[in-house]
Amino acid sequence: MPIATPEVYAEMLDRAKANEFAYPAINVTSSETLNAALRGFAEAESDGIIQVSTGGAEFASGTKVKDMVTGAVALAEFAHVVAEKYPVNIALHTDHCPKDKLDGYVRPLVAISQERVDRGLNPLFQSHMWDGSAVPLDENLKIAADLLDLTAKAKIILEIEVGVVGGEEDGVAHEINEKLYTSPEDYLKTVEALGAGEKGRYLVAATFGNVHGVYKPGNVKLRPEILKQGQDVVAEKLGLPAGSKPFDLVFHGGSGSLLEEIHEAVSYGVIKMNIDTDTQYAFTRPIVGHMFANYDGVLKVDGEVGNKKAYDPRSYLKAAEQGMAARIAQACEHLKSSGRMIAG
C-alpha cells in the first residue's frame, strides 16, 4: 500500500485508541533497516510507524554530507516507493528533535510537506516530534503551539514530550531522577496550551519512569498509573465521562520494560511505542554471527583471497534484515491487546 495518507494515519491512531493496542514505531537509519521494518510489519500483518531521528537522518545522508534534511527526505522518498509493495499501511515520523535542531530539521521538513500539500499531494511525513524536555514546560508548550499551527496546516500530526525520558539517545542525555514522572499539572498545562484537538491533532509522550538505553527487565521503575492520572485529570477538566482518554499517548524508552507494564500503559491510552535499541541489536547480531562463522572468507588471511560470497554485503545484510524484521513482528504481537493491528 502507499504510505498512509493523513486520513489513513488518523484512522490508524483512532483504531488503536478504540481497541487498546499500540503501534511499534521503528527507528531506521538506512534503506536496509527501512526494508527490515517494512518486512517486519508485513510479516506481522500489522500497520506501523517508521521514524527517523536527527542522528539517523544525518547518517542516512552519508557520513561526508551529514545533512539531516537530506537524509530524512531520502529515506522518506525511498519509503514512498518501496512501501507500495507491502500490504500494510505505514506512517512516516521524525523522532526526538531538540530546540537547537528545530530550524535545521523539523521546520524545513514541515515546509516541504506544506509545499506538497499546496500542490494537492500528501505530506512527505505524517508526523514530527518536538522534544522540549530540556527546556522549561512553559517554553516547551509555547514552541509546541507554534509548531502545531504549522503542522495542522500541512496535514501533519505533532508529537510533543511532557516530562523527561532518562538515559541517552542520539547524544541527548537526561539524568534518571524524579523529573521522569509527568505531573497532573503538566497534563493540565498541555491541554490549556494546545487544546483538545480543535487546534490540530497531537500526540503526547508523557513520562512515567521511562529510560532510553539498555536495561534488563525489572531495572526500569515504571509507574504506568501516572498515565491514568493524567488522562483522568484532563477528562475532568474537559467535562468528559469518567474513564475517558483525551490524550493520544506515546511510550518512549521502553527497553527493559516488563510486558505487563507495557500492557497497562497501552490500556491507559498509549497508541505508539518507540522501539530502537532492541531492533538495532536484532539487526547487528546476525552480521556478527556471519563474520565469526566466515572470518577466513571475509578476511584475506595469510595472503589468501578470501571468499567473495562471504564478504559481499548482501550475504550478511539479508540475515540482518530477517533478524530485525522478526523482532518487529514480535513487538507487534506484544503490543496487541483486545484490538487487531491488521491493516484496515
TrEMBL record:
Binding-site residues for Zn(2+) 2, renumbered to this chain = D131, E161
Q: Which residues are responsible for catalysis?
A: D95 (proton donor)
Question: What are its GO biological-process terms?
Answer: glycolytic process
Q: Which positions are annotated as binding dihydroxyacetone phosphate?
A: G213, G253, G254, S255, N274, I275, D276, T277
How is the cofactor bound here? Binds 2 Zn(2+) ions per subunit. One is catalytic and the other provides a structural contribution.
Q: Which cofactor does it need?
A: Zn(2+)
Report the domain of life of the source organism. Answer: Bacteria
Q: Pathway listed for it? A: Carbohydrate degradation; glycolysis; D-glyceraldehyde 3-phosphate and glycerone phosphate from D-glucose: step 4/4
Which keywords fit this entry according to its UniProt record? Glycolysis, Lyase, Metal-binding, Zinc
- List the InterPro entries hit by this protein, alphabetically: Aldolase_TIM, FBA_II, Fruct_bisP_bact
Where is Zn(2+) 1 annotated to bind? H96, H212, H252
Q: What class of enzyme is it?
A: lyase
EC assignment: the record states 4.1.2.13
GO MF, one example: zinc ion binding
Which Pfam family, giving just one, matches this sequence?
Answer: F_bP_aldolase
GO-annotated cellular components: cytosol
Coiled coil spans = none
Q: Which reaction does it catalyse?
A: beta-D-fructose 1,6-bisphosphate = D-glyceraldehyde 3-phosphate + dihydroxyacetone phosphate
User: PROSITE patterns of this UniProt entry?
Assistant: ALDOLASE_CLASS_II_1, ALDOLASE_CLASS_II_2
UniProt lists the family membership as follows:
Belongs to the class II fructose-bisphosphate aldolase family.
NCBIfam families listed in its UniProt record: cbbA, FruBisAldo_II_A, PRK09197.1
Q: What does this protein do?
A: Catalyzes the aldol condensation of dihydroxyacetone phosphate (DHAP or glycerone-phosphate) with glyceraldehyde 3-phosphate (G3P) to form fructose 1,6-bisphosphate (FBP) in gluconeogenesis and the reverse reaction in glycolysis.
**Name the record gives this protein:** Fructose-bisphosphate aldolase
What species does this protein belong to? Saccharothrix syringae
